[in-house]
Known about the structure:
The structure holds 2 protein chains of 2 kinds.
Chain A: E1 29-31, E2 36-38, H1 40-57, E3 66-71, H2 75-86, E4 90-97, H3 101-118, E5 122-126, H4 127-131, H5 135-143, H6 147-154, H7 158-177, E6 181-183, H8 188-201, H9 204-209, E7 213-214, E8 223-225, H10 233-243, H11 259-273, H12 277-295, E9 303-305, E10 312-314, H13 326-335
Parallel strand pairs in A: 3-4, 3-6, 4-5, 6-8
Antiparallel strand pairs in A: 1-2, 7-8, 9-10
Helix pairs in contact in A: 1-10, 2-10, 5-6, 5-7, 8-11, 8-12
Chain B: E1 2-8, E2 12-17, H1 22-28, E3 36-40, E4 43-44, E5 56-61
Parallel strand pairs in B: 1-5
Antiparallel strand pairs in B: 1-2, 3-4, 3-5
Amino acid sequence: MTPPATPDSQAGARRPHARCGRCLAPAVINIRRHNTAFCQACFLHTVRQQVERTIHRHRMLEPGQRVLVAVSGGKDSLALWELLLRLGYQADGLYLALGIGGYSQRSQAASQAFADAHGARLVVHDLADEHGFTIAQAAARTRVGGGRRAQKAAGRSPCGTCGLSKRYVFNDAARQHGYEVVATGHNLDDEAAVLFGNMLRWDTAAMARQYPVLEATHPGLVKKIKPLYRIAERETAAYCVLAGIDYVVEECPLVAGNTQMRYKDMLNELEERSPSAKHDLLFGFVERGAPALRAARADRAELVECGSCGAVTQRPEDDTMTPVCAFCRARARLLQLPLLTT
Amino acid sequence: MRVTARIRPPGRTVELDDVTTVAALLRALDLRPQTVLVLRDGMLVIESEPLRDGDEVEVRHAISGGAR
């Protein structure tokens, strides 16, 4: 249905839809990549259906299976938790306290409030208590003195240390609490930005590992799933608003300068001119690129146990070296500790 | 006519004159419509929605890092 003309309509520009593409009720959101709009009820129905189909298509979960959802208090993870509960899975939350001041406190409070409102269980782990450092400390170490020299000494950006710590703790906590699957709220924009970054470097090993479901290929690993990879970031935010999910709107204070954010910005500029560019890039990769890379064994890493903590890591290229996982190396560098190996 | 927009994050408020639709509001703020959500009275509104004098809306960044 053609929307009413307004004085602000731009000549030649495609007009946004004013009516729901499913039921013709007044629309509350336009989705340009699908060239349609939705009312509240049809949008919620469509997102739920897409996520359910994604879970089935990739055999992410068995009906009613227990799953640990990594939650941050933000829109993506809380939307995912609500969706998994609604679809009937035994979904418990895992919150990792990162020590980013008031931001972390508000994020934990939002996660706990969601758990309480839905009668769900939230497991809390604390990076400082369990591993002796916070992400705020990692950021300070990178920035003290500033510049590339400080970054090199610290080894990773604060976002890099944060991502590494989350991956480590999510796997470890899932095993500790007896979950076989960890679900994360990575959305279409997140995955497209990671893919774009990997493509800029042609990091084929990383690309071969980028998939919506990663099976547990070693007894020390749990299965990882990304049920929201077909839902755009703006759509997860809209889902929260329309489903009444109260998420933390504020940004992480450490995100400024993050490389992935720059890639997202570039992809959104492209999307503005070519709606569905992100969607085509990512879905084409998942359907054709990733299977081809896996068939070509682009990721040949052999998995062994870390000589320091016992976690699963890649075997070093030099066979005479003791394998030490990236998390233990980053932690030792950050705390200026010697690496203790067995 | 005047419209008040609260932009979150970071939570700053701006007043705009003579923006008669949500699309015009976003153009005036130099924001891409597909990276934000616009709420009035707690409900999402689409780009073609007319705005009235005295309207108060929230413009919410929907992409992480989009507010910087």
